[in-house]
Amino acid sequence: MPNPKTCSVHAQRPAFAVCMTCAKTLCQECATQWDGIWHCASCLGAKRAVTVKHSAAAGWISIAAATALLLYFSARLMVWTGALIAGLF
Amino acid sequence: MIRAPLSTTSVLDEATDVVALTASPWAAVLVATAIPYRLMLALFVDRLFEIGSRANEYGHFLGTTANLTIAAFVLAIFGRSVYARACRLALARGTSPGREAWRVPRVALASHLLTASLAAVMTWLTLFTLIGPAVATVISGLGAGTMELNERAAVRGAFKLVFRYAKQTAIPIALSLIFVVAFAVSFVNVASALSLITWLVTAIGGFDAPHWNLLFSGENRRYILLLLAGATVVLEPFWVAAFVVLVRKAGAEENGDDLRVWFDEVRRSEA
Lengths: 89, 271
What we know:
The structure holds two protein chains of two kinds.
Chain A: E1 17-18, E2 25-26, E3 32-34, E4 37-39, H1 41-88
Antiparallel strand pairs in A: 1-2, 3-4
Chain B: H1 8-51, H2 59-93, H3 106-125, H4 131-146, H5 155-166, H6 170-201, H7 209-215, H8 221-255, H9 257-270
Helix pairs in contact in B: 1-2, 1-8, 2-3, 2-8, 3-4, 3-5, 4-5, 4-8, 6-8
């Protein structure tokens, strides 16, 4: 059972904050505040990995949707512009 | 392979060397994938001429041809991506690239397809203006040049890179003007090559020369369209290589690679 008054990583240092995910006590060096909430390094790393995964998926979805839309409009514009030009002659 | 400061002439000079290094087999990959797209475009225009003012009544017919053209366009962009990667590898090593040119990163391919699609939309949207298709051509070229600089799939990221390099306005404009002249030269060369082949084949017995001469004449619309498609295909390797070199040289100027190469040369000449 870790001493609630000392850091769970550095036993000789006094506790400064508690990780809101795993409830470990942390010293000033081990604690990182993100969005106003204290986290330990491993929990913050796990959160970041999830964020990166989500943003990569979102990036792929947005790029696929934008490309499909542009290709669709390209085909339609070909016909409209072509018909317009052909109508002139 | 960066040898001189960024300028239009140095870009063209180094692009010629890159094309020589990547000619076999990578330029052939580019040409093989570009031919279906160019032929489909020629077919689309031919059908428009055929239908003429009744084009409004043939929407479905034209739409099918347009959809097939776009499918061929996607294949052409794949070939262009492989060739652009081969150009970049040749630039970095100074030797002809191997099979690794096939391994185009997925992010690069997706980004290139996105920027090329935007360029295609711009071309058709501004076909009546002269400047619109020219700008679209530059965007498409920069899309090929910057595709491998994309680290992750993002719509904004791909366009940001293209516009970052488009800031070197003078060189892309100069390159476009040079390629307009080169297109005319390429057109004349392809036409002359076909005439020469027809003339040589007349020596073979049983060849109906008058019939072929009639087909290969300026009065035949399809022949002119095929010549235009052929001239574009011939020019495409130089155009892609020029934009890859432009992006590489502009990037080298930003991160100081060009100075490092220059210092190396100075040291070697002093030693």
